[in-house]
Design a protein that fits this description.
263 residues, Hypothetical protein YwqG fold, two-stranded antiparallel ribbon, ten-stranded antiparallel sheet, elongated, 7 helices
Amino acid sequence: MTSIDEALLLKTAAEYGVPAPVAQELLAQTRPCVYLVQHRELPTSRQENARPAARTGGLPALPDGVDWPEGRAPLVLTVDCAALPQDVLDIELPADGHLLFFTEISYPPESAAVLHVPAGARTTERAATYAWEGEPMQTTVYEPRTLYAVPGLSLDGDWEGGPETEAFLDGDGGGDEAEDALENFEEAVLDLAYGGQHPGVCVQIGGFSDPWDMAPDEGELVLFAQLAGQAIDYDVCTLNLIVGTREDIAARRYADLQYEQQT
């Protein structure tokens, strides 16, 4: 499922002075992901025929009888499942329809939800205004921005703990020079998998998380989605992570997902 050829990986490793066994340790600790980015962040080769795959913000279009999720968390992301690259991820998403993500990004969410709207369902766009205890209220509505899907590669944050990598860092000629070589090689691998400079601030579906603090995708929990606050609102500097078990994700038991915000 990795999105980079091993021969190219080894060639790149040699260019950065990284031994082949170290490169193979890195490859063993990768997972495929999909980045959702604005058009200007697409690799040049993908810009001409790019198909929209998602939208930040806006108002939710929900089927008849389906209400805005309890707690009225803002809609932050709508994903067109059919527009995602096929046979890339190692988690199971719906093949069609839309995934709607409701959560707070400015502060830790008191409520959050992911809803799947089946393809062909009759939907109605819901208003942001509502009444609470007789008083008019309004849910935050973020600016809609069109996003495009690009396959990429993600790394386990602890991948450098492998024996070959530790020997490379601690051996003769190691130290700062080896650390720099390893860091530059890692960036080059991520760029190769992406087809250009991989995005830093974006939405990521699947793969390993890239947390600012402790990684929430540990044990049986895997990353479902990672949303940088600035990908939704330029003034919000948070990292919002959604994790769950592979089984719950595949069965669309989205109510069992776990949400974490890092600042």
